[in-house]
Amino acid sequence: MAEKFRVLVAPLDWGLGHASRCVPIIRELLNQGFEPILGGTKESLYLLGQDFPELKQVKLPAYKIGYTEGEKLLIGLIIQAPRVLGVRYFEKWVLFQLQKKWKFDAIISDNRYGVFLSKVPSFFVCHQLTLRSEETPTWLLKAANRKNRKMIQKFDECWVPDYEGDNNLAGDLSKGNLNIPIRYLGALSRFQPLKPCENQTKEKIDILIVLSGPEPQRSILEASLIEQIPNIDRHFTLIQGKPGEVEEHSEANYRIVPFMNSRELQHAFQEASCVISRSGYSSLMDYEALGISRLILLPTPGQPEQEYLGEIWKEKQKAIVQPQKELDLKQALEAVEDLKKTSATFISGEGLSKGVAALKKRLHSLKK
Q1: Which of 296, 292, 306, 277 is nearest to 342 (CA)?
Q2: Rounded to an integer, what distance in angstroms lies between the CA atom of residue 23 and that of residue 161?
């Protein structure tokens, strides 16, 4: 019987995007005969457990990165650096203890900079090889990029969930140079094509709102949307992005759902006439895969990555983009009707498949 290599897959606990884009990675590991072990926090493990209830789970420390309204992300990270550094050291200690018990053959870390071991092949999943921020001083941005590269280069290889070259999805973010191999996996989406009979939900969905990201900004946006929704003659379904919660709430023209698993969410996306969400990269890969044509993006304030990605989608006429503080839901819903129709993008998974195959070959060679 062929040996099953044990791989720890560990996404960062910043919203649910890092966990959701690990779903296709885990699927491919299973397809090629690996034994994935899921590592993360309560929220990320809940999401992954919906798709992989049979897989073993291990707890990792929560970073709980957040920032206040109006605070710039990079400045906020600098302020929180001592606590984040402390979590990284604790994370490393926890990893050593887990390794004693589970004896991982390899590690795949999605933006968890401390989840690597020097004697275990460790791979870092990241779409930001180059950090961007228009409002950050040049010297500080250069220092942040140097630090980012230095931390990534502690891993054996960097896996980028994007296409190589100018025809990519993340623009300049996913371009850069490292002193370790860079492997472009192509776009990653947890959603798979549905059979026609599966494409149905309990009720027809008109406007679908998907919330995500760190607090308090998630709750600030939710409150702003709920304030404007009653004044619009449309029906809204708002998904709060709260894993583990089940109590729904309904009003005259909107319904609040705490969480949907991958299958439920894909049904909702495919039935909705319009989608409203943050411009997080994992979400945008999903929308690309599903061919979402009516899309309104509300970048998280102070997150230059989301602001930059929003501008890319706006320039390509793939979405209507509004700053959160200038949210005008009625105007956005009128403008979104002028966007061109798009179709689903076939994501072959060839880059990911080759990456996992190369990992298997490497592990076999180490066993000899």
Answers
A1: 292
A2: 12
